[in-house]
Automatic annotation (TrEMBL):
InterPro entries: Glyco_hydro/deAcase_b/a-brl (IPR011330), LamB/YcsF/PxpA-like (IPR005501). It is an enzyme of class 3 (hydrolase). It comes from the Bacteria. GO terms for biological process: carbohydrate metabolic process. Its EC number is 3.5.2.9. Forms a complex composed of PxpA, PxpB and PxpC. Transmembrane segments: none annotated. Belongs to the LamB/PxpA family. This is 5-oxoprolinase subunit A. HAMAP family: PxpA (MF_00691). GO terms for molecular function: 5-oxoprolinase (ATP-hydrolyzing) activity; ATP binding. It comes from Quadrisphaera setariae. It catalyses: 5-oxo-L-proline + ATP + 2 H2O = L-glutamate + ADP + phosphate + H(+).
Amino acid sequence: MPAADPPRVDLNADLGEGFGRWSLTDDDALLDAVTSANVACGFHAGDPESVLAVCAAAAQRGVAVGAHPSYRDLVGFGRRYVDASRSELVADVLYQLGALAGLARAAGTRVSYVKPHGALYTTAAAGGPHGEAVVEAVRRFDPELPLVGLAGSPLLALARDSGLRTVPEAFADRGYTSAGELVDRRSAGALVTGSAEVAQRVVRLVTEGVVASVDGVDVAVDAASVCVHGDSPGAVDVARAVRAALEAAGVEVRAASS
């Protein structure tokens, strides 16, 4: 019998999330560890100059650039729900995709996928009008672009029904409930810290398809991409540890959009 293909996973991080003189993440160091960069589009973070620089740095390293659109919430870093109408949200997402696409092209690369940010990610994951708006915006902008979303979420089902390619995602450093949902950021256990612990969780997720919940129950998660939050404590060390552990376990780390 032919040998089975090695397991494969994408490793992504949110980048370009500074603004003006303020810098949030070590983009250059993270780009050396990840295979996909979720680049801010200006509505929650990211000014044109810094976004252009991130796109250029990603292009130099062969890292895929993805659009990371959010609600129009610069003050709240996109982590607050915005009661936008469906048509307003479609236009807002399209605006962000267009802005990043122009900067990416000027930097010698292109937008390869879309992943919502923050509160928009969480709200859209549940489906509903905002999930439908995200799907419509991606489809109208470029129906060939994959949509990255929470593994097992209604959003991915909506996207598939609309003809979009989907990339189910898991989180390296976020806690999970026994129902397979992310623990609310305001609750205990929302964030997993410690490079070794996070790396071990990700290897098990990719090779066994399970992650331990905050209740100690193993939850099945089928993910093609894993996110390491660039603004988490020790993010660079965590990303490096995860990448090294995956490769040591024989996992091919490669952009899901390639």
